[in-house]
Structure formats: structure tokens, C-alpha cells
Amino acid sequence: MGKKEMISSDQALPGRDVAIAIMEPHFVNQSDLNAELNQNEESIVLGLGCFWGAERLFWQLPGVVSTSVGYSGGFTPNPTYEEVCSGLTGHTEVVRIVFDTTKTSLQAILRTFWEKHDPTQGMRQGNDIGTQYRSAIYTASQEQDQIARQTQQQYQQALGSQGITTEIGPLGEYYFAEVYHQQYLAKNPNGYCGIGGTGVCFPPELNQ
Fold it and tell me: Are 87 and 11 in contact (CB under 8 A)?
């Protein structure tokens, strides 16, 4: 099976019953990665290639309370990084973003999503090839789903003939990635990840 070919559920690795536990606070802002959302907060889970660079994009945004990296959109319960990289779990590398709705909006979060990666590449992002690098938006509510699809339509119009391949759907399970992946580029300032400016810039009115 090729790296860019999505598996079916009966082909997926069996996984395990025990989840990866993340006890450390956010390395940058010391937020609790396991905290329940308060009444002014929402979360969204996004895949845009290598999750190291993707996470750094979002923890820097105004109104973002917390970020973490993990795996979603697949079949294998509680996967490891090595399993996800094998392509045999169906998961994509994702960032979970918790944001304060009194200080920012889902539209603003998605603007960064669309502009900071190439959503037309299918099962890859730049030189990173595989189903785990696919573009994805996993939503927590019907309202989020509607906003995600509206912004997709707007950006598709701006792109013209280049077809967006971003997967949009309700969030299933979100599994934390291993501790060393969390806020990786803050812990390892010289680390490399190609995410951060490969998308297309669009006029501000698209998200109004």
C-alpha cells in the first residue's frame, strides 16, 4: 500500500486500551492541556501537515488559550507516533486549539489554517508525503461545521481551478501525541518543520 492511499477500518492496526497521558502544562503558556472548556471557550481540531509547525502557528494567535498536538480522523485507538507514520492507523497529525470566543473567532482561526498551508495537495504537505499529512478540519458542533464549509467555499473561489482537498467532518476521537511532540518547536528552537507560510494569502473580506 502506498503512502498516499487511505486504509479501511479492517486494515488498521489494533492499537491499545491505554491512552498517552499528558500531565505537563503547556510549555509556552503553562495552560492545562486537560482542562475542561469554560463557557467562553471553544475548541477545534485542525490538520495541516507536520503538527510541530502547525501548533506553533496557533499558540501565537491572540485569543488562543491552549494548543496540543495529537492524532485524529482514523481508526486505531490510542495510536503511537510510529504507528501513525506507518499509514496503518488512518489518522492525520492534528492540532487541537482552545480559544476564547470573547477575544477571537473561529473565522480568525480558520483564516490562519487556510493561509498557512496548501489545502490542495491531497495526502501530503510539501515534502511530507502520506495520509497522516492530509488537510483536515474536525468540528465540535454543527455551527462549526457550517463555518468551516463556508470558509472552504470562499477560499475555493479565490483559488479558482485548484481543487481544495481538505477533509471536513465532525470530530471523532482526539488522541494526544507523545509528550515530546507537545510544543516541540518551543522546546527545540532549532527544529525544522515546513509548515508556516506555504498557503495563499486572501483579502480580509473573505472572513467577514
Answer: no
What is d(CA 174, CA 170) in angstroms, rounded to the nearest whole number?
11
Residues with catalytic function: 50
Amino acid identity of 8?
S
* Helix/strand/coil for 109: helix
Query: What are the domain boundaries of the chain?
Result: 37-207
Q: What's the pLDDT tens digit per position in 5-63?
A: 999 999 999 999 999 999 999 999 999 999 999 999 999 999 999 999 999 999 999 99
DSSP state, residue 36: P
Per the listing, cell 477575544 goes with 103
φ, ψ dihedrals at 168, nearest 5°: -125, 130
CB 206 within 8 A of CB 115: no
* One-letter amino acid of 100: D
CA dist., res. 195 & res. 179, Å (int): 20
Largest CA distance in the chain: 46
pTM reported for the whole predicted model = 0.93
Distance CA 49, CA 60 (A): 18
Sequence-distant (≥ 6) Cβ neighbours of residue 134 within 8 angstroms = 47, 73, 92, 122, 123, 124, 125, 165, 167
The domain defined by 37-207 folds into: Peptide Methionine Sulfoxide Reductase; Chain A (3.30.1060)
